Backbone:
């Protein structure tokens, strides 16, 4: 059973950088899956932030692309998110998730495993 | 990007009743790459349906998905008390991945 666990500071100052890590257990981050970050502002809906494949390929939501870096550390079986120049609008529960699977050259990016989520508040 | 519009915003029903939730896309969803999730308070979303109509592992058969192109439906045939939650659709046929705004299913 794959499990994901987010970790990182729960409070970030405005204009600072939000940094989170997602530890993957029960499976290898080098499997044929993409690994994503999704966020949810309090009381609101879900927003996809971006994804990474274990060889380092990344995709980001254009709405956040200029501020987002996603990286992977295969030796630690985890992947990370950095979001720069944060404002109060970036306050949200941040989830990491596994995106389905890839097969025959196609990837099916529905999210079958999720972390429990971590609330990050942007405030001075 | 593909905008997903879910309706209704809130659905009030009683246990045992049938629920029909709609998800409409601003343009055709490639290969019907449409998923549905259930989210209970304080929890992460949980996958119900992928590929518009395939149930995820362990999902009861009272949950079913249908539709194609721009119009998709999630049906819960007979509501159980544990089904009341917020439901989201998600398209993964085009980048960026997008979600609908959610439908809240509440007990009448």
Residues:
């Amino acid at each position: 059973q794959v499990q994901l666990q987010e970790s990182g500071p729960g409070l970030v100052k405005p204009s600072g950088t939000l940094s989170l890590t997602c530890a993957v257990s029960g499976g290898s981050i080098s499997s044929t899956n993409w690994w994503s970050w999704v966020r949810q502002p309090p009381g609101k809906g879900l927003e996809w932030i971006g994804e990474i494949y274990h060889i380092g390929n990344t995709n980001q939501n254009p709405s956040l692309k200029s501020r987002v870096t996603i990286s992977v550390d295969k030796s630690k079986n985890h992947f990370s998110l950095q979001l720069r120049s944060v404002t109060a609008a970036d306050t949200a529960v941040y989830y990491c998730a596994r995106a389905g699977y890839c097969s025959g050259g196609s990837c099916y990016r529905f999210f079958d495993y999720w972390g429990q989520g971590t609330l990050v508040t942007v405030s001075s | 990007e593909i905008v997903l519009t879910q309706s209704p915003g809130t659905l009030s029903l009683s246990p045992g009743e049938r629920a029909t939730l709609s998800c409409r896309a601003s343009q055709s969803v490639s290969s019907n790459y449409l998923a549905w999730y259930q989210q209970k308070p304080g929890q992460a979303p949980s996958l119900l349906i992928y590929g518009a109509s395939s149930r995820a592992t362990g999902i009861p058969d009272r949950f079913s998905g249908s539709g194609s192109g721009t119009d998709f439906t999630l049906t819960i045939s007979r509501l159980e008390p544990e089904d009341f939650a917020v439901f989201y659709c998600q398209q993964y046929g085009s980048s960026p991945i997008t979600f609908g705004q959610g439908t809240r299913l509440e007990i009448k």
